[in-house]
Design a protein that fits this description.
Blueprint (H helix, E strand, L loop, with lengths): L15 H18 L3 H7 L4 H9 L18 H13 L7 H15 L2 H13 L4 E4 L15 E5 L2 E12 L6 E7 L9 E7 L7 E6 L10 E12 L11 H37 L1 E2 L2 E2 L4 H29 L5 H25 L10 H9 L9 H9 L3
Parallel strand pairs: 1-4
Antiparallel strand pairs: 2-3, 3-7, 4-5, 6-7, 8-9
The structure holds flavin-adenine dinucleotide (FAD).
Flavin-adenine dinucleotide binds next to β1, β3 and α11.
Organism: Actinoplanes missouriensis (strain ATCC 14538 / DSM 43046 / CBS 188.64 / JCM 3121 / NBRC 102363 / NCIMB 12654 / NRRL B-3342 / UNCC 431)
InterPro entries: Acyl-CoA_dehydrogenase, Acyl-CoA_DH_CS, Acyl-CoA_Oxase/DH_mid-dom, Acyl-CoA_Oxase/DH_mid-dom_sf, AcylCo_DH-like_C, AcylCo_DH/oxidase_C, AcylCoA_DH/ox_N, AcylCoA_DH/ox_N_sf
Family: Belongs to the acyl-CoA dehydrogenase family.
């Protein structure tokens, strides 16, 4: 389906290889995963087999170097994949976190041994990755985390809890933010790679959290009571670098969210335009009524402008020039745009827009969290205001 307002627009970074990847991803999501959507929503988490299949097709770790089994690409490849996932209406697989965030931490800061040990499994889908920063007492104030890791011989003993962890129910590998120096704030934080495959002693997964949207993706609480983690799993091999590592990676995390936001806007405009052409009221198609035309024109324009801003950010990121404030602007503007566009498009469906039978209803519920996770939009405004 073509996208009104985006016809003829090509991302300035796009090459033929991206088209091949998009085709492969579209086929995988639409033919192999989406048909299971109803069942996955009921079970509240994706199928592990779908991660393995994505790995088999080469769709995981697209930006991981080939020497670790990855695609050897860059963020543009991850962006194409995530865009196609959203366009297909597939929301179970937490690839945005798994490939878009977790592999990035290990790739950028891992020692050679850590990269060898963990990246191939993440690329094949045998390991499902998660990132644990948020705690029950607060997520925005990352410096205030309380989960602590105390050195004990060749290990750390980790005690504390995390909440809202995407992929948390299935996760095999968790990049976990802990305090290694209790007396310091930001400079006392480290990241530990935790192997959760055999449910280690002192580790417990809590309930999967019931949410208003994203029903087929698992979000879980995780508890640690003197869980033993080898000191060799300290990301980067030195203590108290975690806050800097997180601050460096957060712009990419925000870009990942922004990619999903633009794809959702695009899909909403496509669905609403198609509906407005078919549905009749007062003797003519909805698209023949001036208000519907104006609403869709607004939404198509917002989508086009958002796409261009996103592409500028993707190019900056590729050059290593995506600064914190610009990434925050992208996350803020594009997720606010997503919520507005999806809401206005839902209205065009009338009563049907409020029924789960129509995908626009699901998109409405799924959109809301985009303004919350990855740093709330209030925190984004704060980051932007700091450079004014
Ligand atoms: C579906 C889902 C998936 C998630 N996945 C992950 C994950 O994989 N890993 C992970 O670590 N976390 C994850 N999160 C957590 C998410 O990042 C946090 O919810 C978010 O950062 C906000 O933290 P909080 O919920 O503790 O809110 P709080 O920090 O308690 O904030 C509450 C409100 O106060 C506002 N506020 C706070 N500080 C300020 C300030 N200085 N100025 C103005 N307003 C302020 C916030 O904007 C918000 O509106 C996920 C959350 C959800 C819902």
């Amino acid at each position: 389906m073509s996208t009104p307002g985006l016809d003829g627009y090509t991302e300035p970074w796009r090459k033929p290889e991206h088209d091949d990847l998009a085709e492969l991803a579209r086929t995988f999501f639409t033919k192999e995963v989406v048909p299971h959507a109803g069942r996955l929503e009921k079970q509240g988490h994706p199928d592990r087999e779908h991660y393995l299949r994505a790995g088999e097709l080469g769709l995981l770790g697209l930006s991981v170097p080939e020497q670790y089994g990855g695609g050897g690409g860059d963020f543009t490849h991850e962006a194409v994949l995530l865009h196609e996932q959203t366009l297909a209406g597939e929301g179970s697989l937490g690839i945005a976190v798994h490939s878009g965030i977790v592999t990035g931490y290990i790739r950028h800061y891992g020692t050679d041994e850590q990269k060898q040990q963990w990246l191939p499994g993440l690329v094949s889908g045998e390991l499902i990755g998660a990132i644990g920063m948020t705690e029950p007492d607060g997520g925005s104030d990352v410096q205030a985390i309380r989960t602590r890791a105390v050195r004990n011989g060749d290990d750390y003993l980790v005690t504390g809890s995390k909440t809202f962890i995407t992929n948390g129910y299935l996760a095999d590998l968790l990049v976990l933010a802990v305090k290694t120096d209790q007396s310091a704030k930001a400079h006392g934080i480290s990241l530990l790679i935790c192997d959760l495959r055999n449910e280690p002693e002192g580790f417990r997964r809590g309930r999967t959290i019931e949410k208003i949207g994203l029903h087929s993706n698992d979000t879980a609480e995780l508890f640690f009571d003197e869980m033993r983690v080898p000191a060799a799993n300290l990301l980067g091999g030195a203590e108290n670098l975690g806050f800097i590592q997180m601050m460096q990676q957060l712009p990419q995390e925000r870009l990942v969210i922004a990619v999903g936001a633009v794809a959702a806007m695009q899909r909403a405009v496509e669905l609403a335009t198609a509906y407005a052409k078919e549905r009749h009221a007062f003797g003519k198609p909805l698209l023949g009524h001036q208000n519907t035309r104006m609403v869709l024109a607004d939404c198509a324009t917002r989508t086009r402008a958002s796409r261009i801003f996103l592409d500028d950010c993707i190019q900056r990121h590729g050059r290593g020039e995506l600064d914190v404030a610009t990434a925050a602007m992208a996350k803020l503007y594009l997720t606010e745009g997503q919520c507005e566009v999806v809401d206005r498009c839902l209205q065009i469906f009338g009563g049907y827009g409020y029924t789960t039978e129509y995908p626009i209803a699901k998109m409405y519920a799924d959109a809301r969290v985009q303004k919350i996770y990855g740093g709330t939009n209030e925190i984004m405004r704060e980051l932007i205001a700091r450079v004014l």
